[in-house]
Design a protein that fits this description.
The structure holds 2 protein chains of 2 kinds. Chain A is mainly alpha-helical. Chain A contains 27 helices and 2 strands. Chain B is mainly α. The longest helix of chain B has 31 residues, at 58-88. Classes of the chains: A mainly alpha, B mainly alpha. Chains A and B meet through helix 27 of A and helix 1 of B.
Chain lengths: 632, 101
């Protein structure tokens, strides 16, 4: 079993569609793109099967293709590592990725740049698979950047639209800020431990890095900075809502299921390091919790269907980091897995709605769509309830495990944030559903008579995802002792395991509390949007300033603009005017002017008269003779 | 009366400088040529004087070489001037300035 087949298929798809896509008919392009991811999925399944066949302690396969960089003491190879954590990620990426590729064939069908889209999607899939399989931090970093590049290309896919091009730029630049920290972290890791290979780092860290010491805290905080950029946490979350400018399948794949989860994966993978730095874990948990609530509050009042789901993603990623921060790494990855399914389903469902309404994304111009798009409506409802954490859907099991982990570990502060977020999640998710699918139709007349359910190539993936949303949670049942947990135990052992089971409150009462909290949120939404329409507007009118703050996302973008973007831009303009133009351009132009002037002066020697040439000749002879006669 | 070597050399130098000034100053190509010949003859005088005063035949032998070269040079030079005259209807060097910038 060669691990390299897993990323190879999408790479081949990328090359094939990249070079020949425009000359091939659309069905062929689609088959190449979807087929390559499908083959990756099969290879991933085979890899996971192989792993299950190994005994619990020995679930680790490392394959090195070739050495890459060997400079002095530094060694990094093209190496892949398969263990339970990467296996879970592989299945998520290739499985959800495959369904989204199929869906995109329908969604992007009328787009003239069809081949380019699938080229980029395949490139992304390849990069993400390599990121997950990498066996050293440097390779991880390379593909971390690569998925960032693909994100830029795909967000700005319709680059003729300025907002899309700007959004792509914003995503890439904000990510680079995080990546700067990530890079520093990796370098510090090498300086201190002498290696960036996972095997060596995790083996030597406990003995060579003093626990709670400044070094390991610095390393983990820098790594986490990278994760905040990639996974859109405070303070680098600002790019993800703008990223909704990209086509909806892109939002589903990259900004819900896979790329943004790379940060969580990286933190989970670095668990041995984080376990040595309790301060960093506190930071991770608090940022996760605060982001979860922060994003949820913004989602309460948004009117664009994709924006709500985007903020929901930011919020759920916050939950995942909350889980990592309290040591419940397995729970965080479990939530990553379930979230991939229901968030992708939400985005694809939103895409189906947008497709059916010929481009409308504003919830205020939707309503009553369940009658016209029943499959979309039902799958969306399932996903929304899963997101809110309603038993027995997938989201319940994973989110509840995180909250239990927080409570049991004594982290009551972040637990409260998580619980509050659950209430808000229930509210905004059902608000979104009701506004889109229930109630009277507010669809504009022009689109109204063309509202239709999406074609099978789009609704079948929706149905498949809905099926998974219902069942996939059960791999983690019973909580902390399910099949999933036994599978990942060798890699994701929780920190402070003993404290976990000495909780003052039992597992099931907490679960019931979670459902009640979410149910309260759902109930409030039902009251506001189903039974008593008009009530939200009255509430908004009673606290206009708060409403405006939420609607404008707490003015974070505006703050960054004033504090960072404008000064940098003005600095750049100043440099351009005072340095680039006069000095750099001046030197280059100056050399040209010098040559020109020199030529203009030397020209006078060319008189054309033989006599003057003879005179020069004579003067030269006199000079030489004089030198020979008098100076030597 | 014994004529000292310096007299011959001074005369030779004088004739040479005369030739140089002529080449640098005159406008007629034929006159310039005659001045070149004057320079060559001045040098010849110098060679013969040294031959006499150093009692060596080398100087006089070299004069033969110089004369042979002068002859050849005159042949070629006059041919060129003739060609220029046919082409430009003038032998005034001040008129030949096509290579001026």
């Amino acid at each position: 079993m060669n691990l390299w087949w897993i990323p190879l298929w999408p790479l081949l798809g990328f090359l094939a569609n990249g070079f020949f896509g425009r000359r091939l008919p659309k069905p062929v392009v689609a088959k190449i793109a979807c087929g390559s991811v499908g083959l990756s999925l099969l290879a991933s399944l085979q890899a996971a099967w192989h792993l299950l066949a190994l005994s619990e302690g020995a679930r680790r396969v490392e394959q090195v293709l070739a050495p890459w960089i060997g400079v002095g003491a530094f060694q990094a190879d093209w190496g892949l590592l398969l263990d339970p954590l990467s296996a879970v990620m592989l299945l998520v990426v290739s499985g959800v990725g495959f369904l989204i590729h199929v869906y995109a064939v329908g969604y992007m069908h009328d787009d003239p740049d069809f081949p380019r889209f699938f080229t980029y999607l395949n490139l992304f899939t390849f990069s993400m698979l390599m990121l997950v399989l990498a066996n050293n931090y440097l390779l991880l970093y390379v593909f971390w950047e690569a998925v960032g590049l693909c994100s830029y290309l795909l967000i700005g896919f319709w680059f003729e639209r300025k907002s899309a091009a700007d959004a792509g730029k914003k995503a890439f630049i904000v990510n680079r800020v995080g990546d700067f920290g990530f890079g520093l972290g990796v370098m510090l890791l090498w300086v201190v431990l002498g290696s960036v290979q996972y095997a060596q780092v995790f083996a030597e860290a406990p003995s060579r890095l003093p626990a709670s010491g400044g070094v390991v805290t610095a390393i983990t905080l820098l790594l986490f900075l990278g994760a905040t950029g990639k996974s859109a946490q405070i303070p680098l979350h600002v790019w993800l809502p703008d990223a909704m400018e990209g086509p909806t399948p892109v939002s589903a794949l990259i900004h819900a299921a896979t790329m943004v989860t790379a940060g969580v994966y990286m933190v989970a993978r670095s668990a041995p390091l984080f376990n040595l730095a309790p301060f960093s874990m506190e930071v991770v948990a608090w940022i996760g919790g605060l982001t979860a609530v922060f994003a949820a509050t913004i989602a309460l009042v948004q009117t664009d269907i994709k924006r709500i789901i985007a903020y929901s993603t930011i919020s759920q990623l916050g939950y995942m980091f909350l889980g990592c921060g309290v040591g419940a790494y397995a729970a965080a990855i479990f939530h990553l897995m379930t979230h991939a399914f229901f968030k992708a389903l939400l985005f694809l469902g939103a895409g189906s709605v947008i497709h059916g309404l010929a481009g409308e994304q504003d919830l205020r111009k939707m309503g009553g769509l369940r009658r016209h798009m029943p499959i979309t409506a039902w799958t969306f409802l399932v996903a929304a309830l899963a997101n809110a954490g309603i038993v027995p859907l997938a989201g319940f099991w994973s989110k509840d495990e995180i909250l239990y982990g927080a409570f049991a570990g004594g982290h009551y502060g972040v637990w409260m944030l998580g619980a509050g977020g659950a209430f808000l999640t229930g509210f905004y998710m059902l608000r979104c559903y009701y506004l889109a699918f229930e109630g009277p139709s507010r669809v504009e007349a022009l689109a109204a008579h063309r509202v239709h359910e999406s074609p099978a190539v789009m609704t079948v993936p929706l149905a498949i995802l809905a099926f998974f949303v219902v069942v996939v949670g059960f791999v983690g049942v019973p909580p902390e002792h399910g099949a999933y947990h036994r599978f990942v135990e060798s890699v994701l052992a929780a920190a402070g395991g003993a404290a976990q089971h000495a909780a003052p409150v039992g597992e099931w009462p907490m679960a019931a509390a979670s459902v009640l909290i979410a149910g309260a949120g759902i109930g409030l939404a039902t009251r506001c949007y189903l039974w008593r329409p008009g009530e939200p507007e009255r509430w908004a009118a009673r606290c206009p300033r708060l409403y405006r703050w939420l609607l404008n996302k707490y003015y974070v973008d505006e703050a960054y603009d004033t504090l960072l973007v404008e000064p940098i831009r003005r600095g750049a303009v100043w440099l351009w005017r005072r340095f680039d133009e006069p000095i750099v351009d001046g030197s280059v132009n100056g050399i040209g002017a010098l040559v020109r002037t020199g030529g203009r002066l030397l020209r006078y020697l060319q008189t054309g008269y033989v006599t003057s040439y003879v005179l020069s000749f004579i003067l030269g002879v006199v000079a030489i003779l004089g030198y020979l006669a008098f100076w030597r | 009366m014994h004529v000292p070597l310096s007299a011959y050399l001074i005369l030779s130098a004088f004739l040479f400088v005369l030739g140089v000034i002529g080449v640098a100053t005159r406008r007629n190509a034929l006159i310039i040529f005659m001045c070149i010949e004057l320079m060559l003859n001045a040098v010849n005088l110098s060679f013969v004087a040294f031959s006499r005063f150093l009692n060596s035949m080398d100087g006089q032998i070299f004069v033969f070489f110089v004369m042979a070269v002068a002859t050849a040079e005159v042949a070629v030079g006059l041919a060129i001037i003739l060609a220029i005259h046919r082409n430009r209807e003038t032998v005034d060097v001040a008129e030949l300035n096509l290579l001026k910038w």
